[in-house]
Structure formats: C-alpha cells, structure tokens
Design brief:
Rossmann fold; globular; 397 residues; 15 strands
Length: 397
Amino acid sequence: MGKIKIQLSKIFSVFYRIFCKIVPTNNNMVIFIAFHGRGYLDNPKAIHRYMSELSNFKNYSFIWPLKHKKEIKNAKVVQYLSLTYFYYMARSKYWISNCKLPSYIYKKKNQIYLQTWHGTPLKRLGHDIVVSNKKFYRSGLSAEEMKKTYDDDVSKYNYMLSPNSFCTKVFQSAFRINKERLIETGYPRNDILSNYTEGYKQDIFKKYGLPSNKKIILYAPTWRDNQFNVSGYVFELKVDFKLWKEILGEDYIILYKPHYLIINKMKKDKALDDFVYEIDADAEISDLYIISDILITDYSSVFFDYAILKRPIYFYMQDIKEYQHELRGFYLDIHKDLPGNIYETEKEMLEDIVKDRFDYKRLDEFNERFNYLEDGKGAKRVVDILFTDRGYNHETK
C-alpha cells in the first residue's frame, strides 16, 4: 500500500507542478496547517493569532485547511486536500506547518516554508531511529523509505523552529537540516502558558463542564509504533482507573487525553463517571495544561511544555523495557534528565501523588535547560524573523 501511494503521489506531483506554475503567488497570503488539517491548533494557531492582532498584517489573507470545517476568526477556512486547498498552497507566499507535508506538494522558489514542528523530542526521530524490522511503520514503508519522505520535506524548508539549544542539535541529526535554517525562538504555542488570564482558565472549565473545586490530573500517554490496525494507531490503556479512584479519593478527577494519532476510544464504565473524563484526541492540549494541577505521562513530549507551569509531573512507564530497547530509544537519559520520577506500577505513583512527593528543584533545573526561551514572546520572535528584515543570529545557546 505504501509503495502504491508513492507512485500515485509521483503522478500527481507532475500535474501539480504544472498547476503551480500557472497560479501566481500572492505575497500577502499565508496558509497554516496543523496536524494534517486536524484542527486549529498548536504553533500555527499561535502564530496566526499573533499576526491577526497586528496592524501590519491587516491586508494579509490567512488560509486554514481543515478536515472538519469550522469558523476561525480572521481566516478563510477551506477543506483539507480539496482542490481549493491545492489552489491556496500554490497561491500562498508563506506556508506555516507543524507537520511533514506530502512529497507531491510542490514549492515554488518564491514561496517561504516555515516548519514549526510540534514538540521537543524524548523519542528518537527520523534518521536517528534505529530500526531492526524491515517494515517498521504502519504505512508499510521501510525505515529508509520513511526517512526519504522527511528528506523531501526538509529540502523545502526555509526555516524550522527550534524551542531550545537541545533541539537545535537534535534536529540537525534527526532531519539532516543545516543549522542556518534552524531558528531558536521557543515555541509560540507555549506563549499562552505565560500569558493566560483567570478568565481564560474559567472558560476552559465551562467548555468541558468540569468541577473547579477538585484537583485535576491530566493523563496524556503517547502512541506506540507497534500498536496499530488498518485504520490507524491504537492504544492499549494499561491503567486501572478504579484503583486510581480508590487511592486518590474524592478530591481528584482525571482528564484522559490520548495522542492525536490514536483512533480507539476508552471503554465506558459507569463506576468512573464524574472521575475520568476522556478528552477528544484532537483537542488543544495547552488548555488542559492550564486547568490541570498534575501531569501523568509516559514517553510523550508533553512534559517539556507542561514543565513551564512548574507543576508536578509523574512518569508512568509500565512497558519501559520494551519501549526503550525494542522501539525507538531516547535522546535523554530518562533516569537522570526527566523532571520527575519514573514508575512501573500505578500504586506507588498514586501514593506519591496523594502525599505530594515531588522534587521541585529537579523541575527548576529541567526548565533552565529546556525552557529558557518560554517567556510568552515566542510568536513575536518568529514573526519578526519571518516577516521583517531584522535577520536572525544563528549563534545559539
């Protein structure tokens, strides 16, 4: 199936290249793409919101392709992968995307592609993944074929965001991108974590219908490369939420937010009503950060962003031996570099949460290393580089 898609994309690419040469570029048009049209989300959303507030861009057109159309203030929404979408890809001077674009997308020389990416990685990426399986990915592509899709996308970047010096180094290896195209600005999506108001926080409680008088634990695990079916990635939820309820008691509620690639839902259990709230996989996770008091995750990069709030983070890694040695591997020494303890059993972790056992000094040291640029001005730095002549100093920390 993967090879068939590659051949079809090559055929489409020829016709699309001709189409692009016919359609003139609009220098005042920006197209934003988040997670392949899954929603109005992440770094592209933060950059769009910032630009929308500036008078400099009042004559600009902002385009948002979405799989499920919705109203977006100060933007024209089009159907993702429709003919209209391809027209605006050819028409827009600026592309701002947080995900790899298909290889058949042709970029003209006068277009500017900003790749924002979507996280500081714990798990190895791209060329840094060591895979023993010949067909490691759900797509059916070999590891080498998959890496070539990254190479194609990277070849089109004018700029790629880096949130810190760690990523500046990792991205050069993982994506084989030269340092000159990496701009170390922090992540615009994290600006809200420094700038949110109490009113904004209360609006999130109302949106999800959550009680504001209980402690909120956000449980946000990631996907597994080796767990999938014909429709997408699945996640075997290896937690006993009844045990969580027993140990945590009436003072807590759980927000379970699966990774956006995970397609299966949690099995409903009436015994967990008003204790566990399953949040849609495509929801804006920064809103969940803001209202939660504690984060529990595994190998997801969410903890890098959540640490900005200086709240406790616990790592539940019940399959750590398999994940570390049989799947992707890590960039960090997880036993020394993480901002919280690792647990292989739920009971010990839950008891530490109840007793508020957490090392805040360790969290502060983590933030000094990874979040020194997260000051609420990430979007401004990106826009200054992309749309002004102020240039960029490539001497990073």
